[in-house]
Write a structure and sequence with these properties.
globular, Immunoglobulin-like, 6-stranded antiparallel beta sheet, 0% helix, mainly beta, 180 residues, single chain, 2 domains
Length: 180
């Protein structure tokens, strides 16, 4: 991946207007942008040609191309949007049943980074950066999930995958709502 940018209703869907950077090499591409207050639609653009929905967004709307745009509401406080991974064939948020789920992970030692990996398909996970906002060693991340059972893992320092978080010898699954 050579470049990542964010395009949306706030910049005329210009895929080159707002580039993101991964200056600290943590896998999270980010930038600070001035965006007028209100509801915005957006997508991430990789290498100026591959467009991806942010599946951690607060809401989604049809994009007119049989997909969806991510939605964020910008107010007087900063909104964090960051691109960590892409997904080959994500579920489409149709109808109701999507649920906000907060995940917690407490590693044995202090890591440089922790990401939540959720698999909507067997090939490519959606990765969400987890944060220790309270400074107590407990990492948190929230994600909107469609109905169904989704395998998850916690990725420590970019390479250690913690699958067996429940001590059951299998992938931890997260069930939300009713499966379609």
């Amino acid at each position: 991946m050579d470049s990542v940018s964010v395009a949306g209703s706030f910049n005329g869907w210009n895929s080159r207007a707002n580039p993101l950077a991964d200056d600290d090499y943590d896998g999270l591409w980010e930038a600070r942008l001035r965006v007028p207050p209100g509801r915005i639609e957006y997508k991430f653009v990789v290498n100026h040609k591959l467009w991806f929905t942010d599946w951690t967004a607060e809401d989604f709307v049809p994009d007119g191309f049989d997909g969806v745009n991510s939605v964020a509401t910008v107010g007087d406080h900063p909104v964090t949007l960051g691109f960590t991974s892409v997904i080959a064939s994500p579920p489409k948020p149709r109808g109701s049943g999507w649920r906000e789920k907060t995940f917690t992970f407490r590693p044995a030692t202090k890591p440089d980074s922790v990401k939540l990996a959720c698999f909507f398909n067997p090939w490519t996970p959606v990765l969400v950066l987890m944060r220790d906002e309270r400074g107590d060693g407990t990492y948190l991340a929230s994600m909107r999930l469609p109905p169904g059972k989704w395998p998850i893992a916690f990725v420590v320092n970019g390479y250690t995958w913690n699958w067996d978080t429940l001590g059951q010898g299998e992938n931890r699954g997260e069930t939300t709502g009713r499966a379609p």
